[in-house]
C-alpha cells in the first residue's frame, strides 16, 4: 500500500514526500538534490493544501505547529461601521488581505476583532519598538488571560500571541514560520523590502492581515503585498471619517517668498543643476530620473557640482527665513495648543529648536530623553515639539491638535502619516495642519505630488487672525468636518 504524502516544515520551506499522485502540487515544487525531495516555498502552504484536498489526496500534515487559541476579551466594545465593514471584507476574502485605514481609525482594535474571529496562534509584526510596546500593552489589556509575548528589544518569548519588530521577525523567520496561523502585519508597507519580506515568504500562516494608512511605496513594491499577504480588501480615508471616528480637521497651505538674496542664490543653483541635467538628458520627477542623476553626478566634477547645487537649493527652499516668521505667527495664534512641528532634515530641527527654545526629537535623541519629551508633551508641560521624520509613525500622541509642516518629501505616505499625528478624536477637537511652502521653488512640485488636487495661498506678513488664516477662498483651504 502506497504511503500517504507527508508535508514537513524545514527552515522556511516545505518538504513534500513521497510525491502525491495528482498534478496540483507540481506548479509549487522544486526538486532539491541535497535531500532528494521536492521542496515548496512556505508561502504556498495554504494553496498547496487546498489543491491537494480538491484532488482527493490524503495528506499527512506535519508542517504546522499552530493550534487553537482561547481569547476572552476583558471589555466588549461596539466596532465602528468601518471596522465592521473591514472585518467582513477580510473574512469574505478568505482571511487574507490588506486593510487601508487612516491613522487613528482603530487598526489595533480591528486586529483584535480579527484575532477573536480566527482564534488561532497569532504573530503581530510592527516596525518600531515603540509600536511593539503599544501593541503589547493593548493586547494585555484586551486579553488579560492570553499568553502574550515580545520578540525584539531584548525580549525573546515563545508564546501563542507574539508581538515582534520587523527586524527581529525577519531574523527569526525560519523558526517562526510554522508556529502562527494568523500573521498581522502592522504598517505593512514595510514588508516588501528585501530584508523583511522573508517574514511572509517563510511563513505557513493561512490567515494574513495587513494594516496600513499609506499602502503605496515609491518603488512600486507595494504590489508585492498581493502575493505576500493578499489583495486590498478595504480602504477608507481620513476625510470620510472626519468628525465621527476622527477629529474634524482643516488643512491649510501657505506659501512664503524667498528673500531677494535667497532668490538670486536659489535661481543660480537651479540653473547650474538644470544645465547638467539637460546636457545628460535627465528628467527629474521620478525615482528613475533621480537615480540617473545620482549615477551621473558621481562620474564628473560637473556632476558633483550639479548635485551640490541641487542640495543647496533644496536647503534654501526648506530653510528660508520666511518660514520661521510664519512659524512664529502660527505658534502665537495657537499658544497652548499641543503642536508638532515637522521638518525634512535634522539641521532645520535644531535651528527651530534653538530659535524658539523648543524640545527637539531626531533619530539621534536617546531613548530615555525621547520618552521624557513625549511624556511632558502629553502632560502639557511641553506644548510644542519639533521633529524630523521619527514621529511620522509609531508614536501615539492623541493630545496633538496642530501640525506645522515646514518641509517634507513628495511622499503621500509621509504627508498622511504627519496628518495622522493630530487626528485622534477629542471632545470638541478641531485639528489643523499647516503646510508652509517656499513659493516658486521645487518645493511647490513636492507639495503637488503629495497633495495633487490642493491649491495654496500666499502668506501675508500681517497679524494672523483666525478668520484670515482659515478663510476658505478659492480652494485655498481643505476642510474636513460636518459643518463645512
Question: Would you write up a description of this structure?
Answer:
This protein has 484 residues and is of the alpha/beta class. It folds into four domains: 6-61, MutS, DNA mismatch repair protein, domain I, CATH 3.40.1170; 81-241, Rossmann fold (3-Layer(aba) Sandwich), CATH 3.40.50; 249-257 and 320-479, P-loop containing nucleotide triphosphate hydrolases (Rossmann fold); 261-317, no CATH class. The chain is 37% helix and 20% strand. The protein contains 18 helices and 21 strands. The strands form three sheets. It has an eight-stranded mixed β-sheet. Strands 14, 15, 16, 17, 18, 19, 20 and 21 form an eight-stranded mixed β-sheet that branches. A five-stranded mixed β-sheet has the order 3-4-2-1-5, with no helix packed on it. β8 (148-152) and β9 (155-156) form a beta hairpin. α11 (287-297) crosses α12. The radius of gyration is 26 Å and the shape is globular. Residues 452-484 have low confidence and may be disordered.
Strand neighbour order, sheet with most strands? 9-8-10-7-11-12-6-13
Q: What does the radius of gyration come to?
A: 26 Å
Query: What's the shape?
Result: globular
Q: How confident overall, as mean pLDDT?
A: 86
Derived structural class: alpha/beta
Number of strands: 21
Amino acid at each position: 500500500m502506497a504511503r500517504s504524502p507527508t508535508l514537513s516544515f524545514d527552515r522556511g520551506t516545505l518538504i513534500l514526500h513521497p510525491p502525491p499522485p495528482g498534478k496540483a502540487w507540481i506548479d509549487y515544487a522544486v526538486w532539491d538534490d541535497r535531500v532528494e525531495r521536492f521542496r515548496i516555498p512556505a508561502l504556498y502552504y495554504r494553496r498547496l493544501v487546498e489543491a491537494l484536498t480538491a484532488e482527493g489526496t490524503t495528506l499527512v500534515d506535519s508542517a504546522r505547529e499552530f493550534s487553537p487559541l482561547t481569547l476572552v476579551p476583558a471589555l466588549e466594545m461596539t466596532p465602528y461601521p468601518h471596522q465592521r465593514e473591514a472585518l467582513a471584507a477580510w473574512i469574505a476574502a478568505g482571511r487574507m488581505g490588506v486593510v487601508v485605514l487612516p491613522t487613528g481609525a482603530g487598526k489595533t482594535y480591528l486586529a483584535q476583532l480579527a484575532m477573536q474571529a480566527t482564534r488561532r496562534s497569532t504573530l503581530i509584526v510592527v516596525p518600531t519598538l515603540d509600536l511593539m510596546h503599544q501593541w503589547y500593552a493593548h493586547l494585555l489589556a484586551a486579553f488579560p488571560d492570553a499568553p502574550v509575548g515580545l520578540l525584539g528589544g531584548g525580549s525573546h518569548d515563545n508564546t501563542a500571541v507574539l508581538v515582534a519588530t520587523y527586524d527581529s521577525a525577519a531574523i527569526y523567520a525560519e523558526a517562526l514560520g510554522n508556529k502562527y496561523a494568523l500573521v498581522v502585519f502592522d504598517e505593512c508597507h514595510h514588508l516588501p523590502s528585501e530584508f523583511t519580506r522573508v517574514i511572509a515568504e517563510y511563513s505557513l500562516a493561512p490567515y494574513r492581515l495587513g494594516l496600513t494608512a499609506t499602502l503605496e511605496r515609491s518603488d512600486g513594491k507595494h504590489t508585492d503585498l498581493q502575493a505576500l499577504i493578499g489583495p486590498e480588501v478595504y480602504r477608507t480615508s481620513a476625510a470620510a471619517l472626519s468628525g465621527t471616528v476622527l477629529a474634524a480637521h482643516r488643512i491649510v497651505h501657505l506659501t512664503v517668498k524667498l528673500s531677494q538674496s535667497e532668490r538670486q542664490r536659489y535661481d543660480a543653483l537651479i540653473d547650474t543643476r538644470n544645465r547638467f541635467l539637460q546636457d545628460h538628458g535627465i528628467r527629474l520627477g521620478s525615482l528613475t530620473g533621480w537615480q540617473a542623476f545620482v549615477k551621473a553626478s558621481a562620474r564628473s566634477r560637473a556632476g558633483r557640482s550639479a548635485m551640490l547645487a541641487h542640495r543647496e537649493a533644496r536647503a534654501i527652499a526648506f530653510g528660508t527665513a520666511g518660514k520661521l516668521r510664519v512659524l512664529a505667527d502660527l505658534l502665537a495664534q495657537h499658544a497652548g495648543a499641543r503642536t508638532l512641528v515637522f521638518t525634512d532634515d535634522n539641521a532645520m530641527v535644531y535651528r527651530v529648536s534653538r530659535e524658539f527654545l523648543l524640545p527637539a526629537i531626531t533619530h539621534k535623541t536617546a531613548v530615555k530623553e525621547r520618552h521624557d519629551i513625549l511624556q511632558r508633551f502629553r502632560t502639557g508641560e511641553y506644548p510644542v515639539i519639533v521633529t524630523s521624520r521619527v514621529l511620522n509613525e509609531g508614536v501615539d500622541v492623541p493630545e496633538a491638535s496642530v501640525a506645522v509642516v515646514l518641509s517634507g518629501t513628495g511622499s503621500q505616505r509621509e504627508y498622511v502619516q504627519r496628518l495622522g499625528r493630530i487626528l485622534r478624536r477629542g471632545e470638541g477637537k478641531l485639528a489643523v495642519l499647516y503646510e508652509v511652502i517656499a513659493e516658486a521653488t521645487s518645493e511647490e512640485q513636492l507639495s503637488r505630488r503629495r497633495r495633487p488636487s490642493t491649491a495654496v495661498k500666499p502668506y501675508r506678513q500681517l497679524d494672523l487672525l483666525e478668520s484670515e488664516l482659515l478663510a476658505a477662498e478659492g480652494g485655498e483651504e481643505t476642510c474636513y468636518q460636518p459643518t463645512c
